[in-house]
Amino acid sequence: MGEFIRGLRAVRLRAGEPSLGELGRRTSIPASTLSDALNTGRRRLPSLELVRALLHGCGAEPAELAWFERAWYGLKQQQDHGAAPPRETAPPERGAPRQLPPLHGFSGRADYLAELDTAVPSITVITGTVGVGKTALAVHWAQQRAESFPDGQLFVDLHGHAVAPALDPRRALSLLLQSLGVAGESVPVDLEVQTGLLRSLMTGRRMLLVLDNARDAEQVRPLLPGTSSCHVLVTSRNTLGGLAVREGARQVHLGELSEAEALDLLAGRLGAERVAAEPEAARELVRLCACLPLALRIAAANLVGHPDQPLADFAAQLHGVNRLARLQVVDDPDAAVAGAFDLSYAVLSPEAKRAFRLIGLMPGPEISAPAIAVLAGLSPHEPVPALDSLAAANLLEPGGTGRFRCHDLVRLYAGRCARHELPAVEREAAVGRLQSWYLLTADAVAELHNPTMLRLPRTECQLVGTASEFASTVDAVSWLDRELPNLVALIEHAATAGPRWLSWHLVDALRASFYVSRQDMEWLACAQSALEAAQAEGDLLGIAATCNTMGIAASSRGELALSEVRFQRAAECFERVGFQAGISSALNNLGDVLHHAGQLRRAVDFIERSLSLEVNRSNQSTHLSNLAAIHTALGQPQKGLGYGLRAVAAAEQMRAGAALSYSLSDVAHVLCRLGRADESLGYLDRALTVARENSASKCELSALAGLALAYSILGRHDEAVLHARRVLSLAPGPESMGMDPQHQSCAIEALVAAGHFDEALAQAASLLVFYDPSENALTRARLHLLAGNALAARDGREAALEHWRSAREAYAHTDAPEAEALDPLLG
């Protein structure tokens, strides 16, 4: 207990040892309570809420906060049960990540394991030729030493040498940050910000990070935690010498198995009795497989399927086809291992061979049973029994219900089989079916997720087959989450290898889902590739659609000038091809950008023009919701309420879940501004339910922000603060493409009303850093106004003047009437 309290006192000392009175103002906790909490002679633990508040008040880092939480839970267990706490105790709401994949049949490598045990640097790189067992060694060592890393073990496959595109460091960091508890919608977009956040979260923790199948040092470097308390284990076919030079990484070069280790591996797969019965044949088989674990496992899989076949006969077959002997060729390891694939492939049934060839046509990292069925010309819901045969032969690895993965060399070999054995016409037909299925199913997901969002006509796509069907929106979103890596790979492949039109049509189909579920990293990468493809083809419709998508992405990050340029380009291209619905969409989006920039009357003009051009009325609810928000901002809430109610009716008519949730939240916001907050609660409860039913996280944020504002107006400040903190924790700033500025303002307004002045000031200050004064005048004005109000309530009018003056200056660049409220405050 004493050590824990002394740690709290040390944090206070590093913060400049603020007085208890100052800490009381920061935390809203009486100074006497804080004094008692910091007394090293106390017998009982201070409450966790008090500890958290004290640490926040002293500006503790996230990793420091996490450490004290773990220590608190351990001491609490000791007090409650009289048991000694574990060395590292994690809070019950989030356990330490344990991501190491399962490993079966590991054999030998005692010298390498010992070498890894003695590795002093915090970074170790395991290098070696293909199929030598780098990943198996890394995972086995990590599993054996898991207790040395009590804060968790993270595992990321970087796809450095795979058919699928290598994992971009931003995407890899996004995965790591989410594994450490950062919400997907809160992951920053900027690479340096991501790296800094990872290092902050891992500082002080004892964790192991396994980076498998790295391409080069540049792919790995941003992922390094930069702390000696964590260990990084990297596997790669390349030496990654740059890591050794600059980061002091230790290299472990993995060679082939010894004969004894290879025989042990074979015995583990075939049974010790079968290997012992033919010792010479077993040694010959090991020699022909060049003691490579991958080749031995595949050869053993063939023998397992034929339990009566002598090992000598199998070894003679290898000599006869002269394929596995190529494993001895040092300068061509990829071609050498292909001999083992030949043997596995030769014994497959005709149905399994065909399924295997079709796998070679898949561009993504995973294989799903529906995708193979479509390639084979079946319905996506029809079973493909041959996939189980391929898994039994170790050519596929089960990765979940109906999903499989395979070694990248296996996939390359499958592609070679497809090219050599399938006529070009048959290959093109199969790939066309797969592309159609992905696009049709992505459209089906969008229809359930956000049916009001505009989509391009698919007339140029020549689609065949049918989409997968979903029982609910949740099922549809789950499909999108599972297939996202394949969809991204398909877009990237189509953008470069063709057909290029597929890239922008897929991005267009996924836009609705990306927008409401906040898959921001994938959204940006896909849209950029599709835009480049459309520009290369000179396809105006493709350019317009991708510019529209990228404009929304820029707006979500607060980059309003870039967003305006994108939407103007989209409107021009839509107009040149005469696509009226597209023009309407781009004009509405322009109006929304102008709204956030504070140019409210221009925003109204653009959105009213968009409504006059709307041809299918599907977007009407969104456009009406925007008008509701803008007229409310113009000081015309009664007019805004009329537009909001029309938006709700339009969304209900379209059965559009996401649009309905937004419209309900907008109506509630207007009611709050009209002094009818009690009426708004029903709209907000419904908005929150609809958002969650449709897995629309951005819509959920809007409803939570509205609840924070409504409860604040009604004087229910505990509930208001709870919702406000939830909103602000989900998206710390626009660099993460987090949310609408109105959400942030409502949350901070609720904190001010509840008397949490320091917290409100800290939130406003952190957000002001991210919003550019030249682009986000209205947002900055509102944040300065709220910060001034908080200071005035806490310290008096004089303390607030600087923020109020800044607000007045920002409002001068807008036509928002809120500026008038500042005149009496400034005298």
UniProtKB/TrEMBL annotation:
Offer one Pfam family short name for this entry: TPR_12
Pinpoint the residue ranges of every TPR repeat in the record.
584-617
A GO molecular-function descriptor = ATP binding
PROSITE patterns of this UniProt entry?
TPR (PS50005)
State whether keyword Plastid applies: no
UniProt xrefs under InterPro entries: P-loop_NTPase, TPR-like_helical_dom_sf, TPR_rpt
| Keywords associated with the record | ATP-binding, Nucleotide-binding, TPR repeat
Q: Which SUPFAM superfamilies match?
A: P-loop containing nucleoside triphosphate hydrolases (SSF52540), TPR-like (SSF48452)
Q: Which domain of life is it from?
A: Bacteria
Q: Which portions of the sequence form the region Disordered?
A: 78-102
- The keyword Acetylation appears for this protein: no
Q: What is this protein called?
A: ATP-binding protein
Give the source species: Streptomyces polyrhachis
